[in-house]
Amino acid sequence: MERPTRQRDTEEEEAEQSSENTGQQTCPECESESITSDGGGELVCEDCGLVIEDENIDRGPEWRAFNHSERQSKSRVGAPTTQTMHDKGLTTQIDWKDKDAYGRSLSSEKRSQMHRLRKWQERIRTKDAGERNLQFALSEIDRMASALGVPRSVREVASVIYRRALNEDLIRGRSIEGVATACLYAACRQEGIPRSLEEVSDVSRVEQKEIGRTYRYVAQELELKMEPVDPKQYVPRFASELDLSEEVQSKANEIIDTTAEQGLLSGKSPTGYAAAAIYAASLLCNEKKTQREVADVAQVTEVTIRNRYQEQIEAMGIH
Fold first, then answer.
1. Burial letters 292-306, b for 16+ CB under 10 A, else e
2. Whole-model pTM above 0.70?
3. CB 144 within 8 A of CB 184
4. How far apart are CA 312 and CA 315, in angstroms?
């Protein structure tokens, strides 16, 4: 009989603790549970109007704002955390502008002092060689992403993939630049941003063969789910660079859909396949572009375009 009683007492204590934690209070005058905070640090009973506490902590700001822009300008929170920085953006940074809070120029003595502080701040942000290597890799990803013109989300995904590879010890025996470039290429494919391996290698300091080999290794070890690249993703960008109309783009997409259903896409380069479809569509829509012009934009050879073009027009039944 003691066990259920002890169990019941324990449950009652836990219920009391949970009610205290949730902040449920009753009015000592009318025993009502309708207790609200008026925003000024007071707890007031809604039924009888009794002020229960008048020295409650006011957790709001000490300033007032009447619209969104005022609220944003007066906010003192920092930037959101980001994976693109080795410290996730949590450490302090000293600005390189030699001006004070009011925009006035600093004196020569203050400028030399701020220069020393900046230098030591940069030194103490990385405590060991591992953090310095991570900082270098993330800066490389940011540099290459800027050169490729990919959005911020791709940089975040690439940084997350690199951190996963670092935790799994996949960097050992490979160059930091190679793994960083492979992670950026994987992020582009995951986010549906069409960038070919040739384009990524152009902005990298690593050979294309090493990038492809490292990418396959990282994707396999981290079990990244990569779908085959759709050639239609390249059509808008190539057509825009060639200054072609919407009619040519829709015709190129139609050619890709029709020929892919017949199995011609299997084993073919998506960039070359898209380039050949654009070349064929430009001829059909009387907006002729030479094979050399299309090849330069797509970064493929004219031979590739000719071969894919012949296959596509035969499959479409065009003579």
1. eebbebbebeeebbe
2. no
3. yes
4. 5
The contacts of residue 7 (CB under 8 Å, 6+ apart) are: none
**What distance lies between CA 183 and its chain's CA centroid?**
12
- Closest by Cα among 135, 102, 98, 136 to 116: 98
Walk along the chain (319 residues) and give the pLDDT tens digit of each residue: 444 444 444 444 444 443 343 356 788 888 888 888 766 667 888 888 888 877 666 666 777 888 888 877 776 676 778 888 888 877 777 878 888 878 888 889 888 999 998 888 888 877 778 888 998 999 999 999 999 999 999 999 999 999 999 999 999 889 999 999 999 999 999 998 888 888 899 999 999 999 999 999 999 999 988 888 889 989 999 999 999 999 999 999 999 998 988 888 888 889 999 999 999 999 999 988 999 999 999 989 999 999 999 998 888 877 6
